[in-house]
Amino acid sequence: MTPPLSVVLPVRNAEAFIARAIASCLSQSFAEFELLVVLNGCDDGTADIVSELAVGDSRVEVVESAAGEGVVGAMVRGVELARAPLIARMDADDVSLPGRFEKQVRFLEENPEVHVVSCRVELQNALGEGMKRYVDWVNGLDSPESVARERFIECPVIQPSLMMRREVIEAAGGYRRLSWAEDHDLFLRMLARGVRMGKVPELLLQWQDHDGRLTRTHDD
Questions:
Q1: Across the chain, where does the E strand assignment appear?
Q2: CA angle (203 as vertex; 164, 159 as ends), nearest 5
């Protein structure tokens, strides 16, 4: 049976965070989903932790991306394997707060003209004022019009806060490997095609800031 929602979670060497991230998904009030955990060249204890969690919940599917493909390859692999018409993104070091999936699914059901929905994000363990200002700015973009208007300033949505209609990811050509931010690249292509990005006006994701996160290391 096809689930209504697929959650794609790429992970590389996140043994300190991954159990909490997965638990935050599995404890959601909206329970009808598959969770695709895509291992991206892990050489720490991440794979063992994920495999153990998968044994305890049939919604968790563990897959591996091709060697050397990095985070983009992991996301491409996850989207390819996702069976649902809705795809939510999640990162290995973040926490989806209770009700996130339910509220985002409901938003898309009640607003068929919107193709992507985010939520407000709480930055955890901020390493600098710049990231705090960025999160405050993104949280303030509360309509499809404001997201589209500001898209060339900086990435106007935070990737792990998103739930997207599968059709708009495919129509835009999906994730691509390039020398700059693969998420912003995809969102710019979506917006150029008229994709509307809305927001549940509630805090539904805790976004972790630390030295090892991809945004800071640029090492996929």
A1: 5-11, 33-39, 60-64, 86-89, 95-96, 116-124, 163-165, 197-208
A2: 35
Is the entire prediction scored with pTM above 0.70?
A: yes
For 110-149, how does the pLDDT look when each residue is reduced to its tens digit (9 = 90+)?
Answer: 999 999 999 999 999 877 788 999 999 999 999 999 999 9
Around Cβ 135, how many Cβ atoms within 10 Å? Answer: 18
Q: Given a cut of 70, is residue 217 above it in pLDDT?
A: no
**Distance in angstroms (rounded) separating the CA atoms of residues 99 and 119:** 11
Contact of 96 with 205, CB cutoff 8 Å = yes
Share of the chain above pLDDT 90, in %: 82
Q: Which amino acid is present at 165?
A: R
Residue 74: CB atoms within 10 A of its CB come to: 27
- Among residues 75, 63, 59, 61, the alpha carbon closest in space to that of 27 is found at 59
